[in-house]
Write a structure and sequence with these properties.
Radius of gyration: 27 Å
Strand content: under 5%
Shape: flat
Distance between the termini: 28 Å
Helix content: over 70%
């Protein structure tokens, strides 16, 4: 009976030694392993959900083919035997396509084959609709979504800190009350309604385009593209900014007020240090911890919110690509797109944990 505890202790000893010598590196390794496990379970769940959905991509393809065939031969007579042969031929086509796409096998077998292809060959598969490589479809949209969400994150971060620190210094005044009211209002305002209203504003006034992307490529005129991109993307960024700044600014303001009541702030003030230095050099640094912790959730909410944004403003990003793939039940494209977004969000969480250890010297990973 004592064999198993000894075996477990022997197995755990190298990991404990590694954790003791390199606590932060061991923490990062553990989070990366956890991230891979979560991605594996996410992919399996996606395959299972697509299996539970009514019909499949072959049904949609054959339905479209039959509808087009019916419209083309609507004014031609046909006998009952010919229609039966056409129906039999359609069923044969459907079975052949399912075998070709691998849809005739259980979803977990499809998933493990997809994993084998990705891990050992670096092949994300082929889109079942466009028949184009999934890697090509993703590469043409990745940078658009990443650029849009990073710009939103930078603007929300910078302006939230400026406003949060400023209104914390004005706590209890009418200015602070009005700012808190508007922050709560825009935080609770439905994002989809705000996007629709902004698009109607662009359509009525003509000051901004109703689409969020220029109609010419970057290679054609780089300088013109940059200015045109800023003009096209202003309203979507403004909507994303209004939706994200409310909660972030209130969090920074509340953290600043909490820090200003701490005993160490009273001691610093007693030493005659200026109020500006108290705010910016002492209390401000301690507001970074909750923001860094919540920045990964903010990034996740930005990516999830960009799905609606990209659909309404016809922005060529991952969210719109994901929406089209789900409607068409293109499992290869859905899985690769979801995996990338999930990996990006999980990586953001790991980076936020590392930044916490860098910013706050009190945090030390690996110590018991």
């Amino acid at each position: 009976m004592k064999f198993f505890p000894r075996l477990s202790a022997t197995i755990q000893q190298p990991f404990k030694l590694y954790r003791k010598k390199a606590p932060l590196l061991s923490f990062i390794t553990g989070r990366l392993v956890t991230m891979l496990v979560l991605l594996f379970l996410l992919g399996l769940a996606l395959f299972g959900l697509m299996e539970l959905a009514p019909g499949d991509i072959v049904d949609q393809m054959m339905t479209q083919q039959l509808l087009s065939g019916t419209q083309s031969s609507g004014f031609q007579g046909s006998s009952g035997s010919s229609s039966t042969q056409q129906g039999n031929f359609t069923e044969m086509q459907m079975e052949q396509l399912r075998k070709e796409f691998g849809l005739d096998k259980p979803f977990y077998i499809q998933y493990f084959k997809w994993l084998e292809r990705v891990i050992f060959h670096g092949d994300l598969g082929t889109s079942l609709i466009s028949r184009a490589p999934v890697s090509f479809l993703l590469s043409s949209r990745i940078w658009n979504s990443v650029l849009l969400n990073l710009i939103s994150l930078v603007f929300i971060t910078v302006i939230s800190f400026l406003l949060g620190v400023f209104f914390a210094s004005k706590a209890g005044t009418r200015t602070d009350t009005a700012a808190t009211f508007f922050a709560l209002f825009f935080h609770a305002f439905p994002s989809i309604l705000l996007l629709i209203l902004l698009q109607l504003f662009a359509s009525v006034t003509g000051l901004f385009p109703v689409t969020a992307y220029p109609d010419f490529p970057f290679s054609q005129a780089p300088v013109k593209f940059v200015f045109s991109y800023g003009h096209h993307v202003f309203l979507p960024l403004f909507a994303s900014f209004l939706g994200g700044i409310g909660g972030t600014m209130r969090m920074i303001r509340a953290t600043m007020l909490d820090q200003m009541g701490m005993p160490y702030i009273l001691a610093i003030r007693a030493r005659g240090i200026s109020e500006k230095r108290v705010y910016l050099h002492h209390a401000f640094r301690n507001t970074l911890n909750p923001y860094i912790t919540g920045s990964a959730n903010l990034l996740a909410s930005l990516f999830s919110g960009s799905l609606v944004l990209e659909i309404i403003f016809a922005y060529p990003g991952l969210g719109r690509l994901m929406y089209e793939a789900v409607l068409q039940e293109d499992i290869n494209l859905v899985l690769a797109n979801s995996m990338f977004i999930s990996a990006l969000v999980l990586a953001g969480m790991v980076i936020s944990d590392i930044l916490l250890a860098v910013v706050d010297p009190r945090i030390r990973y690996g110590k018991e």
